[in-house]
Amino acid sequence: MILFKFVCAILTRSLFILVSFVGVWRVTTVKNDRIYWLLTVFYLPLVAEMIITFNWRKGQDNKWFSPSILFFLISIIPSIWILELHHQGNRADNLQCKKLDSWENVKNMVLPLNGTMGMNETLKHLEHVLTSVCPNDWILGLHQVLLILLILGKWLLPLGGGVTREELSQLLLIFVGTAADILEFTSETLSDVKEDNKQLVYIILAVWTWSMLQFPFHLAVVTWRPQNSDEGEGCCNFLLSRHSTDIWNIVESLFIQDGPFLVVRLIVMIYFDVFHQMLVFFAIKNFLVVILNLYRLVVICLDFRPPSSSSPSI
User: For helices 165-191 and 198-211, what crossing angle results, to 10°?
Assistant: First the structure.
């Protein structure tokens, strides 16, 4: 069992580094400048965390917070920022690229690969295939792999002390829904950006980066429990112990995901004069989620009854 946990911890962090390396390679290829290999310096915190975790925690993750996921985000987010900004400023130069929008296109790209090709020829062909893919498909693929790996990585990482399997399953389900909303936000909203409008791109990427901070934290499912009986007597402590998951879910929705997403979509529609059905639909969806979370918070507060310290005498 210990060996299995060790292998899972190593495998997860290796996948984190591999995907981050692919992102840095893509940046150096697009920018045609080897200085961007310096982005690999962001791997150092992840490697240091891996060594410290194995020595001190036997590979186990923390209860409330996952440093490995945070350092993985730190290692790959700069590459995605650079690729997004480069793509938005060079859309006109990407007309001859190959899109991955059908099986036929994918087969035509991979078809020349066969067993008679040597190793050098195979590597050159793979490099040609990867560099000929449209930048938008490349960036979308990185977003998708990033989100999928965050879910699988959290599943594979050894459980932290105090985290039950039930809480982990709830967390993974939340991650799936969160990842789908974040991917839809970035893909749909960035596609509405007009050329040479880097101000809006910065806003969207900043909100996207902020929303990704949900993944390292586990406050939405891990139940808060008082350390001793004295701590459980206060009203606030009792409220947290009874409704900690609901409260943290509401906070994340209002301030990290649906609230910021709604603000950005309103800015896109009102200030940048972009309007279409899907944008309006998702803006309404974010508005409903915000309103329902506020309603849920009011219900929790109104229904809250602190425990009486002593029974009334007759």
Answer: 180
Cβ atoms 233, 240 nearer than 8 A: no
Scanning the structure block, which residue is given the tokens 């800015």? 267
Is the alpha carbon torsion for 63, 68, 71, 75 positive or negative? negative
pLDDT in tens, 68-124: 999 999 999 999 999 999 988 776 666 567 676 666 666 666 665 555 666 676 667
Distance CA 244, CA 233 (A): 16
Q: Point out which residues pair with 98 in neighbouring strands.
A: 133
Helix ranges restricted to H, the chain? 2-31, 44-56, 67-89, 103-110, 119-132, 135-156, 165-191, 198-211, 235-255, 258-270, 277-303
Nearby residues of 78 by Cβ (< 8 Å), 6 or more positions away? 39, 42
pTM (2 d.p.): 0.85
Residue whose C-alpha is closest to residue 180's, from 218, 143, 152: 143
Of 6, 70, 83, the residue nearest 42 (C-alpha): 70
Q: Within 13 Å and on the Cβ side, how many CA atoms surround 187?
A: 16
List the end-to-end C-alpha distance of the chain, in Å, as a whole number.
59
How far does Cα 276 stand from its chain's mean position? 26
CB neighbour list of residue 11: distance below 8 Å, 6 or more residues apart: 156
